[in-house]
Amino acid sequence: MWYKLLSIVTNSQSKAIKDIVLNKVEHEINNRVSKKVAVVVKDQEHDSVHVIDNINQNQTEKLSIKQILSEIIAGIIIEVYEDTLVMRILNGQKYEILNTLDKEFVLKKVKHYIDMQKNYNFGFQNNLDCDRYLMVKSKLFEYMKNADRLLIEGFINFRLKEYIKELENYINIAVEELFLEQRNNEFIGLLRYFVHIQTAKEDTVHIICNSRSNYSDYRLFNSMKKDITEKYFEYFFADSLSLDIDNDDMLISALITISPKKIIFHKFNDNGENTSINTEALEIIKQVFENRVYFCESCKFCDRISFDCMF
After folding, report:
1. pTM for this one?
2. Is the pLDDT of residue 122 over 80?
């Protein structure tokens, strides 16, 4: 004889989600549990799946099947429902300050954080169970022990408060990153404005990285091959001794002061070493000066004799 062990129901408004849930449960149970032990009856009309087990199974065997079911449903919640839950949180009053583009940015970032944990089975990386999955699986199993019906959406809303809180933590991190990027864009825009309204003090500035000059890790030369490092770094060098100003800050400040029409970064320094500027500083310079920034990949400026570069 057979006995209904558990009915799994979804009341999702999305037909796609309903189909995924019902088909996934049916597929996983058929693959992981012998049909001599339990069978699956799919009820499309009532958006449910019934797991029927042999009435002769003892309590330990029934719990073993429910343990498997908790793993399957936990995987479905993580894989299928998570994006919808994130958007539901973002559409709440707490985040009403965000516009549509902001929310798309946050959702993309949250998915990136989540994808960092994913593997091939339930979406977790390197076969390591992520905290969210373990949390959901544990809550499901505790509930299923004494239940014969599971409404997935109701379970998420009322019994997975900690899980929802975890998603909110991801969202808060992403929102902070959004605000940081917005502040950075405002800062870049201000610097770009300063450069735009200033008269260029030099037509061209050649930059040698990691040169170990008296003032910084950079040496600056004008279009006439004259070293102008001291001329433009001396003021900022004095401040750097008392303030938290590093070499990259001094370079950016000097370039904004000069506002050259052309900036050329040379691949080789004056010791013949192949070096490059700090990535973050370079990105700021490229954003501020836009199409004024060039890179020389063919000359050795370390001999400081000629500018036989092809630009």
Report:
1. 0.73
2. no
